[in-house]
Sequence to fold (321 residues):
Amino acid sequence: MNLKFQKKSYCFYLSSKVENSKETYLKKSGWIIKLSNYDKKIGFGEVAPLLKKDLKKCEEQLNMIPEYIELSNLSEQINIFHPCIQSAINSALAEINGTIIFKENYFFDEIDQTAMLLNPNNVISDLNEIKKKQSNFGKSITIKWKVALKSNNEEEATLEEILSQIDNNTKLRIDANGSWGREIANRWADILKDNKNIDWFEQPLSVDDIDGLKELTKKIPIALDESLLKFPTLIDEWKGWQIRRPSQEKNPDKLLRDLENKKALISISTSFETGIGRRWLYHLSTLQLQGPTPKVPGLAMNKFPKSFLFLNEAQKIWDQL
Fold:
């Protein structure tokens, strides 16, 4: 099958910066790709690398793809490309083939429909604002707190304050982005192991410390994120929670099939995609919520500016780029 390959770049500023122990995000750059076949079927994908160092590599590899290419040649060529490029092309092919059929509308803009990311520099004031919204709507909420940005003593004091202020209708996710050592991770696990507010610790130890992560699961739920990207075989091996980011995986089709088959202990998370990539996030999140272990996704909805880039209609985004 002969395909036409097109690409357009994008760049946007987040409405406020996002910090973790490894990176600070102020803006996001990437590419939208469009594939079309002889039947005039169209599929869109998004190349959305999270790390700045990967942007140049993705640009060079995208420039290697010719405008017209056979499917078999494309599949073979991208096999050695950056995972984000593989994800974008496989996403577009899935749309062409009808493997995924998007709905016209998805609904993840209410306070109880996605995890709320706390500002690590204003944790308590942020929490109070969220609680006001919660009281206005009477809904349960999930909050996510990125740690390992300040001293452990300071963050433990903040933890104590958070726990004193939240009730049974609030779930807490704590994300260290792989920056804790075993001593601190075990200390926090001991503090929180019987706390019913905790959803999980997300990537508390380095991506390579799989043994340490397994040991922690004996005390508290552990969700892998960065480890899954470095060691994709863990997707089939890890028995605990998995934070899945389809735009960072080589082929989101596998994640789609897993959720359609009701695989448990999966949570969907954003990598700050435009409306093109967000269609996958919405679709997969909807499937996850219908599965055996429903959890609201982490979509960082309050971090995106008002822009045509976040429309629900892929063709309109493409036309305006």
In short: The chain has two domains: 2-101, 116-303. The mean pLDDT is 95.
